[in-house]
Design goal:
With 510 residues, the chain is mainly alpha-helical. It has 19 helices and six strands. The longest helix is centred in the N-terminal third of the chain and has 42 residues.
């Protein structure tokens, strides 16, 4: 983050905060004025009793506010002239007004000092109720005998205590910042192992995980982690690598739980009893071949029968431009009674898609175009919903400017690589692939997957913008960069390549 503090910022010199002038001077010098008169601060001489008539009178030799103690060598009371001179001198030292009444001047200083002391030391420690009252005159306090040296001692405690408190708070802040931003490195240095696996067989919350035909270990490890079944990708993937022989996973929907250990999740996926047969779940972006396999595993209908039924395009009332049933099965969860035949299951899904299109206001003659664009957006978009609308805008902008769409997802679909969007130079140059939008203008010849409601809405209501390019730079979070020129796009594309090469977990997305 741009504004994150660095270590030099944290430990560099910082400007001191300003305290009220009178409070700062009091903390530095205390309230013992004996030093000003030449009397040692800790002479052992008992403090003279306060004047019982007017403790704020400048003639009172024990007045702690004005500090007008008598000369050390003189045992005589001051005359009025001497008292007035002492008052003016004390006021001059404080920068005060010598013409203000003594009690008013004293009250001002007591008020300022009391406020500072309350904010730092607290009134409870002082043992002086007057300190808690703004404007109250504060008598001198000692360590218990009422003498002035105790006041000076407490001031030095403030001087030392505040910096220590600041250092402690600063140290805690630095430690928290370091832990949040460098936890992995700190754990590595200290030898603290980072937990990456849950214990037990789950927390009781059911989650359905889909295994598609062709999924390899890294695909399944990622699916489990994304679904919240396992704590981390590595927990399951490392377990698979440690197996003596490769486990055999069959396509279908599996009933698992969240927060399972990797071993428990593996055992559950290898147990046919966990395959869901009463609910058919088809997720957004699933391709037709994978959907048919999941339907077969869920319902028990032979895959060959489902494939044959899916090729009867006229039965399903598809648009004349449609080249397959791809894109026309609505992805959702369907409750089944176990008595459906191939046509009944496919009819249910196709009719649901038509109902969704009608509800969105899509005319029958526009179904092919909208589903083709929606499927393209669905395949290219990540988990961030706003990106669906931006991606649709990019493709519409390119169509409006007679630019090639240049979607790797369409090229990969046309080559039969349904689990990746990566393509080669030769594949992108092959114009015989009717889904190749690098070599052929306009939309591909049909949908490249099963779009959901969000993708359909994005195809109907694209965002406003002048972007012509986009590329995801983190396939786990879906972070995507949208640009208007080739140079910026190439820079973002390199970020994606670097991200994919950074780890096995990242690579499972690519």
């Amino acid at each position: 983050m741009a504004d994150e503090p660095n270590w030099e910022d944290i430990f560099g010199e910082q400007p001191a905060e300003s305290a009220p002038k009178s409070a700062r001077e009091a903390a530095a010098h205390g309230t013992d004025r004996s030093a000003e008169s030449g009397q040692p601060a800790d002479s052992g001489t008992p403090a003279e009793p306060a004047n019982p008539v007017n403790p704020a009178d400048p003639a009172n030799p024990a007045n702690p506010v004005l500090g007008s103690t008598p000369p050390a060598a003189s045992g005589q009371p001051m005359t009025r002239r001497e008292a007035r001179a002492a008052q003016e001198a004390a006021a001059a030292r404080r920068g005060g007004d010598p013409h203000l009444p003594a009690v008013t001047q004293a009250a001002r200083e007591a008020d300022a000092f009391a406020t500072f002391e309350q904010l730092t030391a607290g009134t409870a420690e002082s043992g002086n109720d007057a300190a808690a009252v703004p404007g109250a005159t504060m008598p001198a306090q000692g360590d218990g005998d009422g003498g002035a040296p105790g006041r000076k001692k407490r001031r030095w405690g403030l001087i030392i205590g505040l910096p220590l408190l600041i250092i402690v708070l600063l140290g805690a802040g630095v430690a928290a910042y370091a832990w949040v931003n460098y936890e992995d490195k700190i754990r590595e240095v200290l030898g603290w192992e980072i937990p990456n696996d849950f214990e037990g067989s789950g927390n009781g919350e059911e989650v359905i995980v889909t295994v598609n035909s062709g999924d390899i270990g890294s695909d399944i490890a990622r699916s489990l982690n994304v679904a919240g079944v396992t704590m981390s990708f590595d927990a399951f993937y490392d377990l698979l690598l440690a197996q003596e022989s490769d486990p055999a996973f069959f396509p279908g929907n599996y009933s698992l739980q969240k927060e399972m250990s990797a071993q428990s999740a593996l055992d559950a996926l290898l147990d046919p009893e966990n395959i869901v047969t009463d609910r058919l779940l088809i997720t957004e972006g699933t391709t037709l071949p994978n959907a048919l396999e999941i339907i077969s595993e869920t319902t028990g209908i032979a895959l060959a029968d489902l494939q044959a039924a899916s090729e009867d395009l006229e039965h399903f009332g598809l648009p004349s431009e449609a080249v397959s049933l791809e894109g026309y099965l609505f992805p959702a969860t369907y409750e089944l009674d176990g008595n459906q035949d191939p046509y009944a299951v496919l009819d249910l899904m196709v009719n649901t898609m038509y109902e969704k299109l009608d509800a969105a206001g899509v005319a029958v003659e526009d179904r092919y175009r909208i589903l083709t664009m929606a499927a393209l957006v669905q395949r290219e978009a990540g988990p961030n919903t706003d990106d669906f609308y931006k991606i649709a805008r990019v493709f519409y902008n390119r169509l409006d400017q007679d630019m090639l769409l240049q979607s790797d997802a369409t090229v990969a679909y046309g080559t039969g690589n349904l689990h990746t969007v990566w393509t080669t130079d030769a594949e992108r140059a092959d114009a015989s692939n009717p889904y190749n939008t690098y070599a052929n203008p306009g939309l591909p010849v049909g949908p490249i997957g099963l779009p959901g409601e969000l993708a359909i809405d994005a195809a109907l209501n694209p965002a406003e913008g002048d972007w012509l390019f986009f590329v995801p730079i983190n396939l786990a979070t879906g972070e995507t960069v949208f640009t208007t020129n080739v140079d910026d796009h190439e820079a973002a594309a390199q970020q994606l390549r670097d991200w994919c090469a950074a780890s096995d977990e990242n690579g499972s997305y690519c």
